[in-house]
Design brief:
The complex is a heterodimer of chains A (797) and B (296).
Chain A: H1 25-29, E1 45-51, E2 57-63, E3 73-77, E4 110-111, E5 117-123, H2 126-133, E6 137-142, H3 149-152, E7 168-176, H4 179-185, E8 188-196, E9 208-214, E10 219-224, H5 229-240, E11 247-250, H6 266-278, E12 282-285, H7 288-294, E13 301-309, E14 315-327, H8 337-346, E15 355-364, H9 378-395, H10 400-407, E16 416-417, E17 423-424, H11 429-439, H12 442-454, E18 458-470, E19 489-495, E20 501-505, H13 514-527, E21 533-536, H14 554-581, E22 588-591, E23 594-597, E24 603-605, H15 606-614, E25 629-634, E26 640-652, E27 659-669, H16 676-696, E28 727-730, H17 748-764, E29 774-775, H18 779-790
Helix pairs in contact in A: 8-9, 9-10, 9-17, 13-14, 14-15, 16-17
Chain B: E1 7-9, H1 14-24, E2 28-31, H2 37-42, E3 50-53, E4 63-65, E5 69-73, H3 78-83, H4 85-90, H5 92-98, H6 104-109, H7 112-118, H8 124-131, E6 135-139, E7 144-148, H9 149-152, E8 153-155, E9 158-159, E10 166-173, E11 180-186, E12 196-204, E13 210-218, E14 225-226, H10 228-234, H11 241-254, H12 265-295
Parallel strand pairs in B: 1-3, 2-3
Antiparallel strand pairs in B: 4-5, 5-10, 6-7, 6-10, 8-9, 11-12, 12-13, 13-14
The chains are: A alpha+beta (797), B alpha+beta (296).
Bound molecules: flavin-adenine dinucleotide.
GO molecular function, one term (chain B): FAD binding
Organism (chain B): Frigidibacter albus
Keywords (chain B): FAD, Flavoprotein, Oxidoreductase
Chain lengths: 797, 296
């Protein structure tokens, strides 16, 4: 496989770009990491939660008398027990036509989805707490509901939040050009209904929280399996009426998130309230059934889209009408607009499409709220767009690579403003496509496909090209109209009296390896040994303003903050060294923790300089002495494009309708690569996740509002045998205009894989005229599609 | 996901275990590999008051060659069955089936007899036991009995076992060394329970016609099934398109599979025909090869 070649990079830094093993792996892979569930405290009590088994009902009464007969039970609480003790979290937005649903610690007055927390039991052990759950009687008055988005969107549909006056809490539209006219006159059109069904992020570690009340300081510490500890601290302190001194949120080792731990949860509020009420440490660890029922979910848009193009395959216009099923609440802080609006803002993809009309309605339904999920919006939009592109190519008999080549935004077009207003900076759109074709020898691949087809096998290949906006600065908020700044990142780097380096950030690594990559950057920029650096993160108390790790921001913003802060600190070190060595700072270099002078043969280690600064008073003139501490905030202002093309070949078994992936390549441009091993790992993992979305995973609610894929025996995650070898081509085109030259790349695989697989299956089944527009493409769905095609009628669904 | 409160006892002999069952009856549950029981307890679908752990009883972790038959002791683990060389050569269809039973870690603990007692309608082992004239050895403190597999397996997760009884072993017939065999399964992911699976053994006569076919299926009914109707259909025939078409049709007319979230009944019926066709062809090809060798 093409390995990146850095030989042409002038003055290549020493550690950035190297395949360095992750420093966090020693603890994580030897069982010595510390997750929330590992955090112990004297007198700790445990919570189990009775969740709603109704999709929509009024809570008439809760009778918990019998629960107190269970040995070890300490208390049973419903929302009425917390009235006056907290305010709800309200995910506000500057967006028009939006209603922000309030989030409370437990269901208040009504339940709005199966799985919503209603009653909390506190007991000496989780066993006792679960025993008590069976003895709680909740009297409900059933309320009408519309479980499907096409019904919930109707004017006369039963309302989930009466105060909103509607179920449609998000409306957004983007228009550029005279779309009607373009479609009226266009030589060709293709269209369809596209759908990525609901997913559950399913990180390996379930959601876990432990809150501890410190009587002495009248303060709370919340240990949270969260990737946004800063956001949680800021909102919860408000909800609980605490000053933010009185609340510290720590995310220790976090076992993955994929977006599922990137929002505020009722359970986080709950453990804090209980810890304060009971003055005891309170732990709640969700089990897998609970996380499948109540963790934020993903996608679930119904996308009607149409593409107009000419005989040359050039795209003339695109239009889409989308209904996003946002579940029962607008999630804090991202709002129900995060996923839904991105579907229409990214739909035109990396292509030049002048005329565009995209409309979305985000509608409440009695299901768990949707929230961030690796790729946000773009897995759905890319599925729709890339299917349209392939349908267009087929319609005019053009090669699918060629039609993409003709429409991708080219080098000379950058910066390119898409119809919804996203600016694509220099990124290797076309080069990624060519890279994928070269890696699998596209002409030979076509021959192989055709040879296998000649044997009667159902073989097809599929592309997916996409671009995403990563590392977004303060100019744009990550979610439309969201009043929280996510566009800056602060680093505080200090050298202590013994000469070691402590670097504190607002990010919250939960599998990305940021302790390694940020240390690589600091080592290069500061000139110190990597072993001397400790990276602190995942703690709201580290820097004055922090949010966390999400939206492919941490390498760009955290890396940028590491760079500018290291440079500031290095200048201080050199100033102190210059005084100690009686040299000009301009003659000094700092490498491998040692300052050397080009004007003499003197040298001083950082350790020696630190000793002089902090302990050997008098060696540096008093008025010129500076602490070796530097803090700086980095703001890339705009975002940067990260682009990629996926290409895969697969085979559908004509008997079983099982899908086997034969070849897979990802060709991507993530700017300057900090650690190729970590980048490869992110691509492999994200593609595996995308394969799960394409072939296996589906949250299904039946007509009664019950979730029927309630355990991992029914919600099928991909396993090792489902994942092919994944080839990766790194294209390092022109670097983006940010401090490190980095682009965010943690999400891409989940964006490209579903579309590439849908295209490849559609190609394999093209002789039958089958188009795969709904994922996952389960054997049962493919069977129904093929049968319908053979009988020449639409499949029943 | 914590089990309800239970007591735990670990008898050292089968007699002790039977005494415990006699004492606690329906309140007690045997735990063998625990690979099906523990998830059900953690989900609180079953709440036994007493767990009787048979794992330390000596003499149960055996696979015995009895000449015409093989006896699987109550603690014969899936891994033992999958790697046993006698089974690989004398009951190759079981050997092949074992590749589809769960994953390595589950196979290290899960037991042959536990699978039959659990009677999951999509499990492989009950099907093989039915197909190969399995006899289930059942014991209680007061009596011993041997039940044919067809009587033992009653329905989905239901067996003929009484509350005070345990299975001490199961015997199955060895395959005719001249017979061809095949095992075909399709599941959503490798190691998952089957959407449908078909096991076939058959012989061929001098004219190349199928003789003494045995066909088992699982995943497409309330229990594992022996498909005597299909056996009758193909006995004495040559497997060509027409015959396999008839098999598909027969299955389509006679099977009443479940619809669940993994697949609908129509798909499962279709899949059964496809897998049966593949398995019959493969078993036939093997039988022809074996016959050819013998004729040389
Ligand atoms: C992830 C996973 C995947 C799996 N996939 C498959 C698969 O693809 N195919 C498959 O066939 N199985 C599968 N299994 C189930 C596995 O094979 C189980 O091990 C088996 O079904 C039960 O055997 P056990 O020894 O674990 O029984 P246990 O779980 O210990 O017991 C199961 C039941 O049988 C009873 N029992 C057990 N032994 C006796 C006895 N001697 N006498 C009386 N009653 C007894 C118990 O009381 C209990 O009711 C899977 C399991 C898991 C966890």
């Amino acid at each position: 496989m093409n390995k990146p070649d850095y030989s042409d990079v002038v003055m290549r830094p020493k550690l950035v770009g190297k395949r360095i093993k992750r420093t966090e792996d020693l603890r994580l892979l030897t069982g010595t990491g510390e997750y929330v569930d590992d955090v112990q405290a004297a007198g700790m009590v445990h919570v189990a939660i009775r969740r709603s088994d109704r999709p929509h009902a009024r809570i008439i009464a809760v009778d918990a008398h019998a629960a107190f007969d269970i040995p070890g039970v300490i208390g049973v609480y419903d929302m009425t027990d917390f009235e006056g003790e907290c305010e709800p979290a309200v995910p506000t937005s500057r967006m028009k036509d939006y209603y922000a649903t309030p989030t409370w610690p437990l269901a208040r007055g009504k339940v709005r989805y199966v799985g919503e927390p209603v009653v909390a039991v506190v007991a000496e052990s989780r066993y006792a707490a679960e025993d008590a759950l069976d003895h709680i009687v909740i009297d409900y008055e059933p309320l009408p509901f519309a479980i499907r988005q096409v019904d919930a969107v109707k004017d006369d549909a039963p309302l989930l939040h009466e105060e909103a006056g509607t179920n449609v809490i998000v409306r957004r539209e983007f228009v550029r050009g005279d779309v009607e006219e373009v479609f009226r006159t266009a030589p060709h059109k293709v269209g369809g209904t596209f759908r990525m069904t609901r997913k559950c992020p399913s990180p390996m570690e379930n959601r876990s929280y432990m809150a501890q009340w410190d009587k002495r300081n009248r303060a709370l510490t919340l240990y949270s399996a969260s990737n946004i500890p800063g956001v949680v601290r800021d909102v919860l302190s408000g909800c609980l009426g605490l000053s933010s001194h009185q609340l510290r949120v720590i995310a220790p080792d976090v076992g993955g998130s994929f977006g599922g731990k990137g929002s505020l949860y009722s359970e986080e509020m709950l453990v804090c309230l209980l810890a304060r009420k009971l003055q005891r440490p309170v732990k709640y660890v969700a089990d897998r059934l609970e996380d499948l029922a109540a963790m934020s979910q993903a996608f679930d848009e119904l996308i009607e889209a149409e593409l107009a193009f000419d005989d040359e395959g050039r795209f003339l216009g695109l239009r889409a009408d989308v209904i996003g099923d946002v579940g029962a609440f607008s999630i804090y802080p991202w709002t129900a607009a995060l996923e839904t609006v991105q579907v229409i803002s990214f739909l035109p993809g990396p292509y030049k499409t002048e005329a565009y009309h995209g409309r979305i309605r985000g509608v409440l339904t009695p299901k768990p709220p949707t929230g961030p999920y690796r790729g946000v919006g773009r897995p759905s939009s890319t599925l729709a767009m890339e299917r349209l592109v392939d349908m267009a190519a087929r319609k005019i008999g053009m090669d699918p690579a060629e039609i993409r080549r003709r429409n991708l935004v080219r080098r000379e077009d950058f910066p390119y403003r898409t119809a919804p207003g996203i600016i694509w900076d220099q990124s290797a759109f076309l080069e990624c496509l060519e890279g994928a074709c070269a890696a699998l020898d596209y002409p030979a691949l076509l021959d192989r496909r055709d040879a296998m087809r000649a044997e009667g096998r159902w073989v097809g290949l599929g592309f997916a090209s996409y671009a995403e906006l990563t590392g977004i600065g303060s100019r744009i908020s990550v979610a439309p109209g969201m009043p929280i700044n996510t566009g800056t990142e602060t680093a505080n780097i200090s050298i202590d009296a013994t000469g070691v380096v402590t670097a504190a950030f607002g990010v919250a690594s939960h599998g990305q390896g940021l302790e390694t990559t940020l240390a690589q950057i600091i080592a290069d920029e500061l000139g110190c040994a990597m072993a001397d650096i400790i990276v602190l993160h995942g703690d709201s108390s580290l820097v004055p303003m922090s949010t966390g790790t999400y939206a492919s921001r941490s390498a760009v913003l955290g890396g940028g903050a590491a760079t500018v802060t290291s440079r500031g600190l290095k200048a201080k070190v050199l100033r102190m060294a210059a005084l100690l060595m009686e040299q000009q700072t301009g003659d000094l270099d700092l490498h491998d923790s040692t300052v050397t002078s080009r004007a003499s043969n003197q040298s001083l280690t950082i350790k020696e300089i630190a000793k002089a600064v902090y302990n050997q008073m008098g060696r540096i003139p008093r008025d010129q002495r500076e602490d070796l501490v530097f803090q700086e905030t980095y703001d890339p202002y705009l975002g940067t494009a990260c682009s990629s093309t996926h290409l895969c070949m697969l085979e559908v078994d004509p008997g079983t309708f099982g899908v086997r992936i034969l070849d897979y390549v990802v060709s991507e441009d993530c700017g300057r690569i900090i650690n190729p091993m970590i980048v490869d790992g992110q691509v492999h993992g994200a593609v595996a996740q995308g394969i799960g979305a394409a072939l296996l995973e589906e949250v299904i609610h039946d007509g009664e509002g019950q979730s029927v894929a309630a355990s991992l025996a029914d919600y099928l995650l991909p396993v090792a045998t489902d994942i092919p070898d994944i080839a990766i081509v790194h294209i390092e085109a022109e670097l983006p205009n940010n401090v490190g030259g980095f682009r965010g790349m943690g999400e891409g695989g989940t964006i490209g894989a579903p579309a590439a697989i849908a295209n490849a299956i559609s190609d394999a089944l093209a002789p039958l005229g089958v188009e795969v527009n709904k994922l996952p493409a389960t054997p049962d769905r493919l069977f129904a599609l093929v049968r319908a095609a053979r009988q020449d009628k639409p499949p029943a669904e | 996901m914590k089990p309800a409160r239970f007591d735990y006892v670990r008898p050292d002999s089968v007699d002790q275990a039977l005494d415990l069952l006699a004492r606690y009856g329906g309140d007690a549950k045997i735990i063998a590999g625990g690979q099906s029981l523990m998830p059900m307890m953690n989900f609180r679908l079953v709440k036994p008051a007493v767990l009787v752990d048979i794992n330390r009883i000596p003499g149960l972790e055996v696979i015995e060659d009895q000449g015409e038959r093989v006896r699987m002791g109550a603690l014969a683990r899936h891994r033992m069955t999958a790697t046993d060389s006698m089974i690989a050569s004398r009951i190759p269809v079981l050997h092949d089936a074992m590749h589809h039973v769960a994953h390595m870690t589950v196979r290290n603990r899960g037991t042959f007899c536990g699978s039959v007692c659990h009677a999951d309608p999509a499990a492989e082992i009950p099907m093989i036991v039915l197909m190969l004239d399995g006899q289930v050895e059942v014991a209680s403190a007061s009596r011993r009995r041997v039940l044919p597999a067809a009587e033992f397996l009653v329905g989905s997760l239901v067996t003929a076992l009484e509350a005070d009884e345990m299975v001490t072993g199961i015997t199955i017939g060895m395959s005719d060394p001249q017979s061809g065999w095949a095992f075909e399964e399709f599941s959503r992911r490798h190691g998952d329970f089957a959407l449908a699976a078909v096991a076939v053994t058959l012989g061929v006569d001098a004219d190349g016609a199928i003789r003494n076919p045995r066909i088992g299926m699982t995943g497409v009914g309330e229990t594992a099934m022996r498909m005597r109707g299909v056996e009758a259909l193909i006995d004495g025939c040559h497997p060509d398109e027409d015959m396999l078409g008839e098999v598909s049709e027969w299955l389509n007319d006679n099977l009443v599979p479940n619809t669940d979230i993994h697949a609908g009944a129509d798909y499962r019926r279709h899949l059964s025909g496809v897998l049966a066709g593949r398995a019959i062809r493969a078993a036939y090809a093997r039988a022809r090869t074996l016959r050819g060798k013998q004729d040389e």
